[in-house]
Amino acid sequence: MGGFDVFFSTMDENGKFQKPVNLGYPVNTTDDDIYYVLSADGKRAYYSSSQEGGFGEKDLYQLNFVEHKEIPLALIKGIILDAYGNVPPVEIYVTDNETEEIIGIYTPNSKTGKYLIILPPGANYNISYEADGYLFKSENIDVPMEANYFEINKSIDLQPIEVGHKVVLNNIFYDFAKSTLRTISKVELEKLYSLLEKNPSLKVEISGHTDHIGSNEMNIKLSQERAQSVVDYITNKGMDKSRMIAKGYGSSNPVAKNKNEDGSDNEKGMQLNRRVELKVVSFEK
After folding, report:
1. What pLDDT was estimated at residue 132?
2. Of the candidates 281, 255, 278, 136, the residue with the CA atom closest to the CA atom of residue 206
3. For an engineered disulfide with 208, which of 127, 129, 227, 275 has Cβ 3.0 to 4.6 Å away?
């Protein structure tokens, strides 16, 4: 219809796109209609066009789809800064915990620290924020195959490698009331090994923590065994065992409330309290 138009193409059952078709009026005009972009959730699109009644040579227009099938994916966005408010030279690694395949490597905006990641459904993801001179920070995002579109805003504060700084290892997994590492923990364990390998003077404490369920004696024992299982994995790969200390704290150091105000269990808080942490005990730059 014009110099540039917007076209659409349909994918067949064999995964091949059919011949493109012009969207026609009112999307396309006799002038240029360009830069068509679909929103992540599939509900709307944006493009630039020279429409009658516009305010400039080209204006931005929004298309809303009345009938659409929501795209089943997760959108993760936020800002990455260090402890001093600077944007670190960080890379974001997205890995499938089940297959250990790296899905993608991303970088935030170097000036603002803003980042955006789109995760397709059907995987348990390890999202790791990594930069030289910093402790890596990982998040675990599970996107079921039948999941609807959802967004997560996640601001990341990277801690420099300094004595006393610590980070939760969010992709270490155990079965209920057991200390045997599950196989989907391997991606995180390998990142821990790599951190120690890249920083030969680094010594760390690996600490285990539980929620309030069970006796203090049982929780101390379980948290100690879980912390030790991480240390054993790393030392079995050849790392000097003197560089790691395993410590079980049981339920003595919660990071969230185990109980709601009405006395019922706070499931989200309990989940946060069941964790494995890394803390820097010695480091020479």
Report:
1. 95
2. 278
3. 227
